[in-house]
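Before relying on records like the one below, remember that each one covers exactly one chain. Contacts with other chains, cofactors or solvent are not represented anywhere in the record.
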Amino acid sequence: MIEIARLQKSYGDRPILDGVSLEVPQGTVCGVLGPSGSGKSTLLRCVNFLEPFEGGEIRIAGESVGYDHRDGRRIPKPRQVVNRMRSECCMVFQQFNLFSHMTALENVAIAPYKIKGMSRRAAREQAVALLDKVGLGPRKDAYPAYLSGGEQQRVAIARALAMSPKVLLLDEVTSALDPERAAEVLDVIAALAADGMTMMMVTHQMHFAREVCRNIVFMDGGRIVEEGGPEMLAAPATDRLRSFLRHLRLA
């Protein structure tokens, strides 16, 4: 579902992604691990084309992201094509970014109504179903200020699902939450994984990564240092991953 080949991304003279190649099969969850500044979040932002990139290629369901390739040249895709692909590859951020003046239901219903052309009634019915799916049916009329952090993040996930995406990108979605609220959000993500949603997830939740992710990549310095199944967290092959895991356990 996601194919990344030799991805290059820099900020000025500073390389952020240096030849990253990765595949995520349909219906699987890929966990992306690494220290701060390793390029994890930038990788997800490139997949969603929130960040342009200088080299390499990203494909989602066989379609090139951001650029067309003709005669050895990269040609930027038209804005409407980029926007359509973003709606098929939705991103959930560390911060919840809900509209504060809208209820949970309105936050989930607005994009299908405004962007996909769904009727207002159908969008609201879908929003109710999705809020039920993430365990927030009784809170559908609450405004973000009256929701806990975990509840707000679950609304943000429901809002992404309202676009019926092919891929869901999750960028440290539990980092701002206490352990109890984080567990609520992780339960929702585990249920989505069981339903066959294709996901890339930047996380420091090692237990969750072992239980839910089919493949895991460990990044450092803009490169993939180690890649494998969940078992690599129990028996890492590189000193760098061993050091990273040791520091996590001490934290």
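DSSP finds eight helices and twelve strands in the chain.
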